Amino acid sequence: xxxxxxxxLINKRLRPLVLLVLCLFWMPLAVRADEDxxxxxxxxxIWHPTTWASNKQTTLLETKLKRQLSQWQGQITKxxxxxxxxxxxxxxxxxxxxRQYNPSAxxxxxxxxxxxxxxxxxxxxxxxYEQLGITYQVYEAPMHVYLKIQLDNGQWALLETxxxxxxxxxxxxxxxxxxxxxxxxxxxxxxLGFSYKIDLQKLAxxxxxxxxxxxxxxxxxxxxxxxxNQARELYDSxxxxxxxxxxxxxxxxxxxx
Length: 257
What we know:
Layout: H1 37-45, H2 49-52, H3 55-79, H4 83-97, E1 100-101, H5 107-112, E2 115-116, H6 118-132, E3 136-141, E4 144-150, E5 156-159, E6 167-168, H7 171-183, E7 196-198, H8 200-217, H9 221-234, H10 238-256
Parallel strand pairs: 1-2
Antiparallel strand pairs: 3-4, 3-7, 4-5, 5-6
Helix pairs in contact: 1-8, 8-9, 9-10
């Protein structure tokens, strides 16, 4: 199987691509008593504060966010998902928490250095919108993760978290951006072209997938297999299957050497 399928990876044989390392925020998420509860639980349980950052760092960030969330919740109660309010929240989060783009940023980098990539940023926004009760959707594309929120006029805004002008409401521009993100797959393999909604359980799976990538790059193949097995339990997509095959192939080649 061609190694170009492997994605989003970090394989030294491939040119650099966007690393999908999802920031599955470790702060507790409110679990609703409906069909989303299992997905939310998967999302919340992937990370533990001590995995990537100290409890002190996590507590400081959580305290700061709680104050802001309380303020924003009051404004949303009065105004709803007003376009200007949603735009204000989007850029406020960017300024305060997303200082420097780093395509291989991990969750700890977000806490300690405010470094981020498309997926760590999406994880943070998903957490915030979940807490504020804003309707949102997360999308997976071949080399990108992005999200949309529903405004009070019924339309959807696209949030390009890596752009300083990333709050997009023009519907024609949104359609063009989504087409671009789908057709970027042609740089890898046309069969991987897609852009579709994923739930929080699949978001959690993509984090595990990327942990497998990191371990594979370090030639920790057994640990990589552990993570990809966990990921496939939540979301057994083609992406997962290809990475699983290539990790095992790399392990086999290493054994032969």
